[in-house]
């Protein structure tokens, strides 16, 4: 018996789904960087035509918003929210750092989709934590957004410093004979102490503001 061809449902192309598009878009950005990403290349990778992608996403910006939303929503589900406010913020910072380290493409996606529902939802969630501790809403939103960008900025440097050529250059440019006591404590090979200091200073600053 011959098989019947796959049928389209509600006008959508066969063998194509929203999740497939998001997964392939992430893979393309991870493999070639966001600067060369286009819906045409995405369509080619999915063996379809660009017009079919617009059935699911109205524009490239809408696609990035959806990618950021999915990534940040998954991030929210990855840790316990029942801790005290300081521990929850620390856990979120650690979770976001870990997510970006494992998927560097998130830096590009979140950077372009800072107003995506997932990003705004996370900023709103942290803002509520700070407001519950007595901070005004405008300042809480400002601090929450600052937390998001602080983690992204640190992780961007961390990913770049992991490159052997860049690490070698950092060590070379930092080899000042005039500061031997300082040089032996600079966190170049292992950035975890620098990260821990960043988180500690962040929480100390928030406590001071409260």
- Whole-number average pLDDT? 79
Oligomerization category of the chains in this entry: single chain
Order of helices and strands: HHHHHHHHHHH
Helical content, roughly? Answer: 55-70%
- Count of alpha/pi helices: 11
- What would you report as the Rg, rounded to the nearest angstrom? 21 Å
Number of strands: 0
Question: What report would you give on this structure?
Answer:
This protein has 210 residues and is mainly α. The protein is built from eleven helices and no strands.
Keywords:
210 residues; mainly alpha; 11 helices; flat
Short description:
With 210 residues, the protein is an all-alpha fold. Helices cover 68% and strands 0% of the residues.
């Amino acid at each position: 018996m011959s098989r019947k061809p796959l049928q389209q449902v509600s006008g959508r192309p066969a063998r194509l789904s929203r999740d497939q598009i998001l997964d392939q878009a992430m893979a393309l950005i991870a493999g070639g960087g966001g600067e060369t990403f286009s819906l045409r290349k995405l369509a080619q990778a999915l063996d379809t035509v660009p017009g079919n992608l617009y059935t699911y996403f109205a524009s490239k910006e809408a696609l990035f918003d959806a990618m950021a939303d999915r990534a940040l929503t998954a991030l929210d589900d990855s840790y316990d929210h029942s801790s005290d406010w300081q521990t929850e913020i620390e856990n979120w910072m650690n979770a976001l750092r870990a997510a970006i380290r494992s998927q560097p493409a998130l830096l590009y996606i979140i950077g372009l989709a800072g107003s995506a529902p997932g990003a705004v939802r996370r900023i709103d969630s942290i803002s509520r934590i700070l407001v519950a501790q007595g901070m005004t809403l405008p300042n809480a939103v400002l601090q929450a957004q600052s937390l998001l960008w602080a983690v992204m900025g640190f992780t961007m440097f961390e990913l770049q410093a992991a490159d052997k050529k860049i690490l070698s250059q950092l060590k070379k440019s930092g080899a000042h004979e005039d500061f031997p006591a300082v040089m032996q404590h600079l966190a170049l090979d292992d950035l975890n102490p620098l990260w821990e200091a960043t988180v500690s200073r962040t929480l100390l600053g928030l406590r001071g503001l409260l």
